[in-house]
Design brief:
Length: about 300
């Protein structure tokens, strides 16, 4: 799905990368190979490579044109970032601005940036390097940041959480880098708006907290002309989690909460006919979902 129209809202997919990320067993640790290759969940070759056992995913940004405004949903990994604990992202040279230009979007035109959460691959192009410092890539945009993620990841505010989180200190060190080069400059420029609970952006777009993957993980719901969609961020990394909605990615910080949020959002999507648009699905990228057995099945939108 490269472009879809829902009522008065236009959605454009800007794909930065599609291919192997990591072993599938590492991405969704609770699931073995049969979940990826068996029966209705046969995910090769678009989402799984049986030869190598790799999870196939995507890095992408979604452009939403609504009410005369241009909204970006997540901003990828960025360019030239120090991410020593994440080889795939370390000093990666992402090309989002060029890809946006090809899609007809200039940086000055972007009115709203939504970060569904504050992980490295969702905030990278929030900023760009200019004269040796990081500045907002989108000079006229309001950046919506989940307040719970700012509280958790901001080195100036999150240290209380560190003592109880029990996480590898290298992850904290890298999150500090992410916050420093991709979030702090937006705050310093006065372009950030923190929100919690839910936030209506316009008559068609509403942000809603769905915590678990991170404390402030959120979804963006779209409703226009009786048609609906939901950008689910990292609530799922692969369609294997449609068939197995209780199974988390290895990146979910609160497993029980993440599973509950995923199930709640998928149940609503199935009941209300929302088009589900995740951050990292390869292949078609978006799907309508329906109940099947203990999980859900996808009808891909191509
Ligand atoms: Zn992600």
């Amino acid at each position: 799905m490269e472009r879809i129209v829902l009522g008065d809202v236009e959605i454009i997919r800007v794909l930065e990368y599609q291919g192997p990320f990591a072993p599938a067993a590492a991405i969704v640790p609770a699931l073995g190979e049969p979940a990826w290759t068996g029966g209705d969940a046969a995910l090769a070759p678009e989402h799984y490579d049986p030869a190598s056992g790799a999870y196939i995913g995507a890095l992408q940004t979604w452009v939403v044109r609504s009410g005369g405004r241009t909204v970006l949903v997540d901003t990828g990994v960025g360019a030239g970032r120090e991410r020593p604990s994440t080889p795939m992202f370390h000093r990666r040279e992402g090309r989002l601005p060029e890809l946006l230009a090809a899609a007809g979007v200039r940086p000055e035109e972007v009115d709203v940036v939504v970060n569904t959460h504050l992980h490295a691959d969702h905030v990278g192009w929030n900023t760009k390097e200019e004269n040796g410092s990081w500045v907002p890539t989108f000079p006229n945009a309001v950046y919506f940041l989940p307040a719970a993620d700012r509280a958790f990841f901001d080195p100036a505010a999150g240290h209380a959480a560190r003592s109880t989180a029990g996480l590898d200190p290298r992850r904290w060190a890298e999150w500090d880098l992410v916050f420093g080069d991709s979030v702090a400059p937006v705050l310093a420029a006065g372009q950030a708006k923190e929100w919690s609970g839910s936030l209506r952006i316009d008559s068609a777009l509403v942000l809603e907290e769905t915590p678990g993957h991170t404390p402030g993980s959120s979804v963006l719901r779209v409703e226009s002309g009786g048609e609906r969609a939901v950008f689910v961020g990292d609530l799922m990394h692969s369609p294997v989690q449609l068939a197995h909605p209780s199974c988390n990615s290895c990146f979910c910080l609160d497993p029980a909460q993440a599973a509950a949020s995923r199930l709640r959002v998928l149940e609503r999507a199935a009941a209300e006919g929302e088009l589900v648009i995740p951050a990292h699905f390869a292949g078609a990228g978006a799907a309508r979902v329906r109940r099947q057995g203990a999980g859900f099945a996808a009808d891909w939108v191509r």
